[in-house]
Amino acid sequence: MEIVTHEVRRPRTWFFDPEDSAYVSMDKDGNVFARLNGPNLPDPNLITAELQRQAAISPNPELCRTAADPVTYELWNHWQKKQGGDNGNNN
Fold first, then answer.
1. What is the largest CA-CA distance in the chain?
2. How far apart are CA 57 and CA 64, in angstroms?
3. What string of H, E and C letters represents the secondary structure of the chain?
4. What pTM was computed for the model?
5. Taking a C-beta distance cutoff of 8 angstroms, is the pair 23, 36 a contact?
């Protein structure tokens, strides 16, 4: 497996498993917390657009998240490169 990124808020590392085109989140002891199939990764641009839409109608927009998690961008960018494409998400 190939290391893709480390999370900032949690002590976990994301790996890419080329055998089944999946991303796996593990802690230092090897416990698996999440497994996402590459073709099913959410587009962080769509997430960000929806979060911004929700913040715009919220009575407390300053309390709302307005961007997808950085890990989502990292996984998305990695997957796009694996597919031979680049959609401009270099966050």
1. 46
2. 10
3. CEEEEECCCCCCEEEEECCCCEEEEECCCCCEEEEEEHHHCCCHHHHHHHHHHHHHHCCCHHHCCCCCCHHHHHHHHHHHHHCCCCCCCCC
4. 0.83
5. yes
How far apart CA 80 and CA 22 sit, in angstroms, is 13
Query: Where are the chain's structural domains?
Result: 2-82
Specify the pLDDT at position 9. Answer: 86
23/45 Cα distance (integer angstroms): 19
Give dist(CA 9, CA 18) in Å, integer: 26
Supply angle C-alpha 86, 9, 21, rounded to 5: 40
Q: How many Å apart are CA 87 and CA 78, to the nearest integer?
A: 11
Which regions of the chain are under pLDDT 70?
A: 85-91
